[in-house]
Amino acid sequence: MRATRQHASTSEATMNVLIIYATIEGQTRKIGDHLKATLEGEGHRVSAIDATVSQDVPAADTFDAVIVAAPVHAGTFPSTLRRIIKGAAKTLMARPGAFISVSLSAISDDPSELDEIGDMVEAFSNETGWWPVSIHHAAGALKYTEYDFFRRWMLKRISAKEGGPTDTSRDYEFTAWPKLDAFAIEFVEQAPVLAGKI
Ligand SMILES: Cc1cc2nc3c(=O)[nH]c(=O)nc-3n(C[C@H](O)[C@H](O)[C@H](O)COP(=O)(O)O)c2cc1C
């Protein structure tokens, strides 16, 4: 049986966390599933919605905090996710929210690459009306062996621009799982404090 964590203060209470994500190549689903397991391991209750499968967001009184995760594809986030967040923005804004962008730009040493992702998140918020209180830029994956010819060519170019690998004979995963976990755990633990400011 898993040991129960001792909670030192109310900000470490068990939380109901809603995760909403969209994926095109599968890495953000892996991130959503991973975060669900991590937060459950911390004693929280977690439900996850894959926006590419369902567009139903539960009422605000069923969750205490929301984490939205989305990959960057050709300079923007998937339209399925933009639609679900826009439709539920009022509900989601009733609770503290965190946004996790998933991209190749996150592997770059050039800070302007992350600034670009920051601009995309801002455009996403302007479009949807949902503003996260916390943002994390996670590195995604390169699945060269699964792409068709055009995607492989395109991703090789993007990867070269970010200083990433261009050997297309194998796949690469760049997601820094411990950093991602630390971000999510800290956000959820601070959510009760943040909720008081909404
Ligand atoms: C067709 C395509 C376009 C992409 N465009 C970008 C891009 O413009 N900027 C970027 O930083 N990463 C880009 N990426 C990298 C993805 O963000 C990365 O592979 C991520 O892990 C994909 O997440 P997913 O598997 O959940 O779809 C692109 C990937 C693909 C396949």
From TrEMBL:
Organism this protein belongs to: Oricola cellulosilytica
Any one GO MF annotation of this record: FMN binding
A Pfam short name: Flavodoxin_5
InterPro entries in alphabetical order: Flavodoxin_dom (IPR026816), Flavoprotein-like_sf (IPR029039), Protoporphyrinogen_IX_DH (IPR052200)
Gene3D superfamilies reported for this sequence: 3.40.50.360
PANTHER family: PROTOPORPHYRINOGEN IX DEHYDROGENASE [MENAQUINONE], PROTOPORPHYRINOGEN IX DEHYDROGENASE [QUINONE]
GO BP of this protein: heme biosynthetic process
Protein name as it appears in the record: Protoporphyrinogen oxidase
Superkingdom of origin: Bacteria
Transmembrane annotation, as ranges: none
Positions of the Flavodoxin domain: 18-169
